[in-house]
Each structure stands twice: as structure tokens, then as C-alpha cells.
Design goal:
Family: Belongs to the mitochondrial carrier (TC 2.A.29) family.
Radius of gyration: 21 Å
Solcar repeats: 3-88
Low-confidence stretches: none
Number of helices: 4
Organism: Helianthus annuus (Common sunflower)
Helix content: over 70%
Oligomer: single chain
Number of domains: 1
Pfam families: Mito_carr (PF00153)
Mean pLDDT: 80
Structural class: mainly alpha
Strand content: under 5%
Order of helices and strands: HHHH
Signal peptide: 1-23
Length: 113
């Protein structure tokens, strides 16, 4: 964690916000699909088109700010703890990846097990 605590928290908060903003329109469509009655069920594409026709592109981002306020602390803290645990446990990410696949893949012969 050579970047420093505050900088790491800030970078991961920004990353969390970017990922939330990129996927938020899909969440809006998903919520609309869940609220539809079974007899008038539309496809995801038709639901997307209906949302844009009724409210324009901003309708796809309705409620984004409260969602971002939830993501900011959770993403920054979770990734900070991840980085901290890598230091505390003295484990490199590659070691974690390889040890996971040694343990949980049916192709253990690839990893020499």
C-alpha cells in the first residue's frame, strides 16, 4: 500500500462510483421488470425503450445520487481492508489466485497437485 491510506480510500471510492454509475441504468431496468405484472410482461429491451421514451436518458439515472452515497463508504472501506489484509498476511495477489485454483478446480494437475 505504497500510495497511502487516504489516497487508497479515495481511489477505491472513485472506482466504486464509476462502476455504479456505469451499471445503474441496468438496475433501473431490472427494477421496472420486477414491478411488471405477469400478464403485461415486457422484454428488457422494450422496458429500456419505454423508460427512455417516457423520461428520456435522465430517467435511467433517477435515484443515482442516494445509491452513490451508499457505495462511497462501502467500496472504499472494503477495498482498503483488502489491501490491508494483503500486507498483514504478506500474501501477493498471484499467490492467492494460484492457491485458490489449486484448491477448488477439477484441473489440479495443471497446478502440480
Amino acid at each position: 500500500m505504497g500510495l497511502g491510506t487516504l489516497r487508497t480510500l479515495m481511489y477505491w471510492a472513485i472506482a466504486g462510483c464509476c462502476s455504479k454509475a456505469a451499471t445503474y441504468p441496468l438496475e433501473v431496468v431490472r427494477r421496472q421488470l420486477q414491478m411488471q405484472v405477469h400478464t403485461t410482461k415486457m422484454s428488457a429491451a422494450a422496458t429500456f425503450k419505454k423508460i427512455v421514451d417516457q423520461g428520456g436518458i435522465p430517467a435511467l439515472y433517477a435515484g443515482l445520487i442516494p445509491s452513490l452515497l451508499m457505495v462511497l463508504p462501502s467500496s472504499s472501506i472494503s477495498y482498503f481492508v483488502y489491501e490491508l489484509m494483503k500486507i498483514v498476511l504478506k500474501v501477493e495477489p498471484e499467490q492467492v489466485f494460484v492457491s485458490f485454483f489449486k484448491r477448488y478446480t477439477p484441473c489440479n494437475e495443471l497446478f502440480g497437485k
